[in-house]
Batch of 3 targets.
Target 1
Amino acid sequence: MIYTLKQFAEMFNTTEHTIRYYTDINLLPCQRDKGNRRIFNDESVNWMQGIACLKGCGASIEDIKEYCELCRLPESKETLYARYQIILRQREQAYKRVEDAKATAAYMDEKVQHYEQILSGLIPDDSNPENWTEDTRPKKH
Amino acid sequence: MIYTLKQFAEMFNTTEHTIRYYTDINLLPCQRDKGNRRIFNDESVNWMQGIACLKGCGASIEDIKEYCELCRLPESKETLYARYQIILRQREQAYKRVEDAKATAAYMDEKVQHYEQILSGLIPDDSNPENWTEDTRPKKH
DNA sequence: CATTGACTTCGAGTAACTCGAATTTACTAT
DNA sequence: ATAGTAAATTCGAGTTACTCGAAGTCAATG
């Protein structure tokens, strides 16, 4: 299966500009069709998945590039081990992000409660739709 | 209690440069001593806590500034409600971040497993301490 | 009185996009 | 064959949120 730039960008919820940028800096290699247009295939999808994930860990473009280059090198015990080490380190960061995000969310819950307490004391004008708000709390599944 | 720039930056695990930047753009107001040096107090700590938290939600400096300015305005039903709306929206983002980080961490767990499987097949040289690695999985408390 | 250390301003640099203008290409309709 | 449209191209400039370093100021200490 092959994808145009537009399709590819949509698949990853990003912009054509960003994908173009990634290919320009050789982070994400791509083929060109006879009209010089970028085309992507299922292998590109795999690479991009890895890139997106490392980005999610907070890795810099340079770090991600380093990892991708290790992956393109002939596979040896050493390169595999180096890749493993990078992945281990980035997983740490991912877990740290979970904890940070949880703490932030908890603090925001407090703030929401605080405002709700104050606002409830202000005899809200419930007849005014501008004062209506949905329950926006994250649903527990 | 008052704090110097250095102390204040350390409290928030950031750099003096960043705090200087925040004061320069009027995101975080500060007093000056007779020698024109920036000084911070407990109120600054509160502001900075709020700023750090909104940043943790992914809010832009401009958005945070807008919120801070609403907080400095005379308190009315309207300004309070506007602040509440911002906090609600940012809490959403915080919860989204938790989910994203969790998904990323899970994907990284898979990658780690994948590498461990491959590497375990390579008859590791356990006598070489360079091949030893600690258990770096996040501890469940 | 000289040195140290922490501060000051200011201007330039960086990462990772982000945008837009001008151009090229492929397709489709007349 | 031509005209129009949509989607691609390159390239250079702009943006955000820092990040760094140079050059200068100020107060306390040896």
Target 2
Amino acid sequence: MSSEKYENELYDLAELFKMFGDSTRIKVLFELCESELAVCDLAERLNMTQSAISHQLKILKQSKLVKSRREGKSIIYSVADEHVRSIIALGMEHIEE
Amino acid sequence: MSSEKYENELYDLAELFKMFGDSTRIKVLFELCESELAVCDLAERLNMTQSAISHQLKILKQSKLVKSRREGKSIIYSVADEHVRSIIALGMEHIEE
DNA sequence: TTAACATATGAATAGTTGCTCATATGTTAA
DNA sequence: TTAACATATGAGCAACTATTCATATGTTAA
């Protein structure tokens, strides 16, 4: 039984896709694929509260899908891994059918 | 704001990745990528109840990621879309780093 | 038809999760 | 230092979801 052999990998894989499996998070990732953004700008673009976005960014950062740096009063977030773009692109291919 | 333009696509995309974002479902998909299987065989391989697997298969079928056919007393499930394989493969690439 | 096997399904439950609200932390300009 | 701005975070709640249990549906062989 192959999935038993890959037990841990498949668990991690589910955790990875879970990150893309929420409307808010995938919107955040999608925006960050186009340009790096501060938390308040993300919140404004997605029409959500700063708190909600900040909570999701924390989860995305823990999963190492986004990274951040301070710039004055703001924290600028950006995509941490090129795989984010390719995973979203591949998913889009599937949707558009 | 780009994500607003793609509002519906991103919602569907999240729904797609949600399917891959559960340990049980991704194990099922992974097994089915290797060979088509009856429900009871899947349940045995994953060491889970027939009911639990059946419930998840229903969800996967609604999402059009798996298909099924009857063969005697059994229902044989298989992957419905080649994208399933490529999405899992791409995710695996990300994990193995 | 009946028994045995295979699958599907509805209800109930326990666990998870995303958001809100309030507030803390950190930065900058006056 | 103080006020204004930007972000992070913990607690609480409401909504969602994966599993279990019991049972219904469907198929085959005797």
Target 3
Amino acid sequence: MNLNNRQKKILQIVNSTGGAKVSDLSKSLYFSGMTIRRDLQMMENEGLLKRVHGGAIVNDSDFQYPIWYRMEINKEQKKKLAQRAAKHLRDGQVIFFNTSSTLAYLLPYLQQYKNLQIITNSVHLLFMISKMHIPCFLTGGRYNEVEGSISGRQAEAFLRGINPDIAFLSCEALSPDGCVSNSNEDLAEIDRIAIEQSKTAVLLMDQSKLGERCTYTVCHTDRLADVILL
Amino acid sequence: MNLNNRQKKILQIVNSTGGAKVSDLSKSLYFSGMTIRRDLQMMENEGLLKRVHGGAIVNDSDFQYPIWYRMEINKEQKKKLAQRAAKHLRDGQVIFFNTSSTLAYLLPYLQQYKNLQIITNSVHLLFMISKMHIPCFLTGGRYNEVEGSISGRQAEAFLRGINPDIAFLSCEALSPDGCVSNSNEDLAEIDRIAIEQSKTAVLLMDQSKLGERCTYTVCHTDRLADVILL
DNA sequence: TGTAAATTGAACAAAAATGAACAAAATTTA
DNA sequence: TAAATTTTGTTCATTTTTGTTCAATTTACA
């Protein structure tokens, strides 16, 4: 029994029973209380559990649903609203999409238009669009694994060299007074530049994120041609 | 019993039992603890297992090499040659990879270096490298679904703005007189620029493609620091 | 065949893991 | 509230494991 096995076992016990006492763990695993305590401290640092006086309990901190799950939520309603957004589409347009799962609802409507060119900083959208055999360009720059986005100085430079007809954006928060904002500084900057460079900008966003305000302002809604709440 | 057989056996034991102690492996394989320890270190660097105090356990990290890589991993020759290519690696390097599955053999060796920065025009390599938690930049530009590559005018401009310490390239053909060539014009141009911009360039390629010559010349081998035939 | 490189093991110093002792802090009890 | 009890964290000693270095041996290769 080494450190790793012991900690794995402790985690099993804690997760299956909701919590465990140091004294019990010590007795059942045949290690001193001191060792157990050190284990719990390590595991708490890694966010695996929460330490309390006398032992440890499960860590039920906030967790995020994976992206594929979020896409399944409210499918029907979102489809209808994406249809409304699709009314801004025309043949031959150069279109920018930012990084967002919400925008994926728009993709089916691209099929009916000819000679579109898509630019995006989302690798997920890149793949989906490519599978539809629509030419797609990705901004260059630093890859962020969490959102599947490309951002940073180079992505900004890339965008400044392009003038899309329309930008479809999604963001994290929209305050009551019309302030569109994001919690990621780099992605907020991408959005700002996309709006600057594009003739038209349309915001799509999830109603659930309404009314809040994140650290980095993207723009005010009066700069947008349309705001569609899914 | 040579190094490769021994490591294969160690991996079997670890994978079948979930873990093994150095002292036990030493006794059952009749090798000194020191040798076992060196084996484990090597195998950990390649991501095949996880070392813990006293021994090793199965690698349950979130990063897994793709199946085709793990299936090939025991082909000693490729492993050895990738190892030779890895000798060009140093801490803190800025490295370019072009679009090629061959280069994936090098990835395990990246883990042992600190502060690397990778630039590539391959989305497949981008994903693998990101999963290893190494900062990775993608060139901007047109996406080509077939090879999973980014190329075109913007990718070229992106590359010209960067000066990597070393470029690892793979290509489609290498003629007997040392002409490195490619059948895709855009990707050949990317390679040319990468060589131009990099302090050092190393070619890795599959022996099967040896002796031929494609439409677009990339460079001559005397421009390369090393040519490694897998 | 001789030389360079890789492999291996031994010795020993350095580091990690563990438990015991005890003072400090938290909790319970009176 | 104070005393008693339990739990915690610090420190130190002991044991185990690891890494470094060097020498011997084997292997690769020119």
